[in-house]
Design a protein that fits this description.
alpha+beta; two-stranded antiparallel sheet; Arc Repressor Mutant, subunit A; 3-stranded antiparallel β-sheet; 9 strands
């Protein structure tokens, strides 16, 4: 099917996930394909990936090709850019925001039991994983934080409901949380 080949090519060159609406506009002849045709083509491409090292993943922002988790560690060394490593404190902060959103800085500090470093939330905002959702209507009007689609996309999630259950995260020293692979820097003394 020609539409499937066009979608395949688009997903291979795209720097971000593509949603069905963007894929509809790629139909040959200039007229958009129907939503059903695009979804049928996506199903065809997904089946073609069965048994291969790549998969067609559906994330919060759309569809993308990615290396299957079983092969990610093996090929990671080939990436021109090393994945950034984050301290345990930043990852804890991100987890609190993801599981308890919307939260303020004070909420995060109460849960962690320590004050946040000045750059922790800024790092998460700069990465595009966290954003200010608004301000709480209390004295000082503190910012309220939540996660973004970029956070969901990075971790291969369609929604927050796909986060691992907190009960499954019993071992705090385990760097692997469900299917989410995290890079952790050792804590500085």
């Amino acid at each position: 099917m020609e539409l499937a080949r066009i979608i395949e090519a688009a997903l291979l060159v795209a720097s971000e996930p593509l949603d069905v609406e963007r894929l509809r506009g790629l139909a040959p002849g200039g007229q958009g394909a129907s939503r059903e045709d695009v979804l049928r083509a996506i199903d065809e491409l997904t089946l073609e990936c069965a048994g291969r090292a790549i998969e067609l993943a559906h994330t919060a922002s759309g569809y993308r090709y990615q290396v299957r988790a079983a092969y990610a560690d093996t090929v990671a060394a080939l990436l021109a850019e090393r994945a950034p490593r984050y301290s345990r404190a930043i990852l804890e902060t991100l987890a609190i925001i993801a599981y308890r959103q919307p939260v303020t800085r004070a909420d995060i500090e109460d849960i962690r039991g320590v004050s946040l470093g000045s750059g922790m939330i800024k790092t998460l905002v700069d990465r595009g994983w966290v954003r200010v959702l608004g301000h709480r209507e209390v004295p000082g009007r503190p910012a309220v934080f939540g996660t973004t689609k970029a956070f969901l996309d990075y971790f291969g999630l369609r929604g927050l409901g796909e986060l691992p259950a907190l009960a499954d995260l019993a071992n705090p020293d385990d760097e692997r949380i469900g299917d989410l692979q995290l890079s952790v820097l050792p804590e500085a003394d």
